[in-house]
Amino acid sequence: MVPIRKQEGFSGQKSIILPVGVKKKCNQHPLTRSLYVTDIGYYPRAQYHYRERKMGVVQYILIYCIEGQGRVTMSGQTLPVNPHEYAVIPAGTPHIYYADEENPWSIFWLHFEGTLAFHHASLLTKNEAQLISFCGFSEERNSLFDKLFNGLESGFSIDNLILGSINLAGYLSTFSFYRRFINESADESFSRESIVDWAILYMKRQLGRHVQLSDVAREVNLSIPHFSYVFKNATGYSPMQYYIHLKIQRSCEYLQYTNLRINEIANKIGIADAYYFSRVFAKTMGMSPSEFRRKYR
Questions:
Q1: Which of 226, 221, 270, 272 has the alpha carbon at shortest distance from 248?
Q2: β-sheet with 77-81: strand ranges across
Q3: Can you tell me the mean pLDDT for 85-101?
Q4: Which CATH superfamily is domain 195-296 in?
Q5: Per-residue pLDDT tens over the stretch 62-75
Q6: pTM
C-alpha cells in the first residue's frame, strides 16, 4: 500500500538546516571537520510523514523514534522502526522512510558528515550489519539533543559549531553504547548569561522587526564600537550579520512548514523588500527561497 504523503509541517516540529557557508566553515576548521551536523530536527506525531531520495544524500542520516511507528526502505528491504529504536541510512544510499498511517512516529533526526562520520556510522550499525537497532530510553540522550539543537539555534559562531561537534559525538555515543546511558540523567541545564547571550536573545525576540545596530547596543548598555568588538570577538560575525543569519534560519522554517508566499515570509522576518530578501537568502543558503522550498518540502 502506498503511504499518503504529507506536504506540510507537523504541529510542534522544529528543525535547523545549516547554510552553505557554515557547512564550509565546519569542513575547514580542525575541531569540527571530523564530525558535524548539517540538518537536525524533531517531528512529533508526524502523520503522513514521507521522504524519498532516489539518489540518497551525501550525509549519514540518523532517525530516532520515541513513539509510534514508521518504516524505512533501503537496500531492497522495508524495515519497521518502533519506539526507542533508531535507523541509520548510510551516505549515498537510495531510501524511503515514512510514518505509519495508524500510529505515526515521533522522531528526532539529524544528518551528519565529516572525516570521522563513516567510523561513527560503523559503530551505530555494527559495520552496517544492523541498520535498525534498539537503544532504550536515556535522559542523557535527550539532554544532549537539546544542547546540540539549542546551540545551533543560537547561531553559527565557531564556538557554537565546535561545541556542536563535541555534543554530536556524545549524542551518537548514546546509541552506539546505549547500555551505558540507560536511566542516567543529566541536570546541567544552567547556561551562563553574558552580553553576547543577552544580545542574541534580544535579536531572536525581534526577528519580525527591522532592528538596527544601535538598538541592540542600547539593549545591552554598551557603546556601538565596544559592543561590535565584543560580539564579533565572541561569535566571528558582526552583530548585523548574525541577526541576518537568525532571520534566514526562521525563514527556512516558514518555507518548509507553511504555504506562505515569499513576500509574506519576508514581512514576517522584518524585511519589507521581497527581492532583497531573496538575494540575501540565496547568498546565505546557496539557493533561492523557491528552490529551498522545493528541495526540503
A1: 270
A2: 50-53, 95-99, 70-74, 77-81
A3: 96
A4: Homeodomain-like (1.10.10.60)
A5: 999 999 999 999 98
A6: 0.71
